[in-house]
Amino acid sequence: METKARALYTYLVENAPEFTEEWYKHQTVKPGSDYSIDAPEHVVNKIKEQNMNYVKLVAKSLDQTYEEMTGSIGAWTKKTAADRAQSRTSIAEVTRNFGVFRRTFWIFIERFTEQTDLNLTLKDILYWEKKLNTALDYVIESFASEFMKIIVARLEAQSSLINELSSPVIQLTDEIGLLPIIGDIDTARAKSILESSLQRSIDLRINVLVLDLSGVITVDTMVAKEIFQLVESLKLIGVETVISGIRPEVAQTAIQLGVDFSGIRTESSLQKALSKMTVSR
């Protein structure tokens, strides 16, 4: 590392504790936030420790290539993003603190330039500005990316659970199961129904599954495709599918879209489907 950059790096690392206290002075009471001044002591200590590591990581970028910098900072932001998401600290609060950190960082650089005996030039300052601001920008970019990955994964997991719970296979007899579907069906929900229904049918050891669509208002070609795939998949494991309760408007739309239910056993209502099966069995 070049002598002047080494001196700045050493100054920042040695003053990381003081830097962190200066940064922490800007915190207030924020319910539910890791940054709140009334947070539990262990949370405050962890936040301060992370901040000091943050100072060292950004300072280290003075002597790193872009690839080295993104590698070291990326590993740090992945962990801290998980911590913030776990504590439900908002991305807005995190972004605000990034701004406080950046301003504090440059206050300490200014102090260094005032205290050092080194012959600093404008070129030196501009070089540091380029290296350090690139690192600071990447912290925000990588943190936001990791944070959103966690939130999206959480939402997808919740959506999957909701889909599974909203489309349960109910065992009516030893051989017959019922899958009532209510509300709008999109492709994602249809796929979830396919996966959960197959496994549930196997677990219950049923021979017939009644798919009741009386609560479904619309069916498009993609959803129809998923329904057909469910029927075929059930057939492969020895389960017959009976579709009941197709609304007239749904049937009309299906015909207009070229969706053909003729190869599948259908009944106008759930009651008729069940009564016929009861008689036949």
Account of the protein in words:
InterPro entries: Bact_StressResp_Reg (IPR051932), STAS_dom (IPR002645), STAS_dom_sf (IPR036513). This is STAS domain-containing protein. Keywords: Phosphoprotein. Residues 166-277 form the STAS domain. It comes from Metabacillus mangrovi. By secondary structure, the chain is α/β, with parallel strands linked by helices. It folds into two domains: 3-161, Orthogonal Bundle (Globin-like); 170-280, STAS domain (Transcription Regulator spoIIAA), CATH 3.30.750.24. It is 67% helix and 9% strand. It contains ten helices and five strands. It has helices at residues 3-14, 16-24, 41-60, 66-87, 91-115, 122-166, 187-204, 221-236, 248-256, 270-280, and strands at residues 170-171, 176-182, 208-215, 240-244, 265-267. Strands 1-2-3-4-5 form a five-stranded mixed beta sheet. β1 (170-171) and β2 form a beta hairpin. α3 (41-60) runs antiparallel to α4. The longest helix has 45 residues, at 122-166. The radius of gyration is 30 Å and the shape is elongated. 26% of the residues are buried. The model has no long low-confidence stretch (mean pLDDT 85).
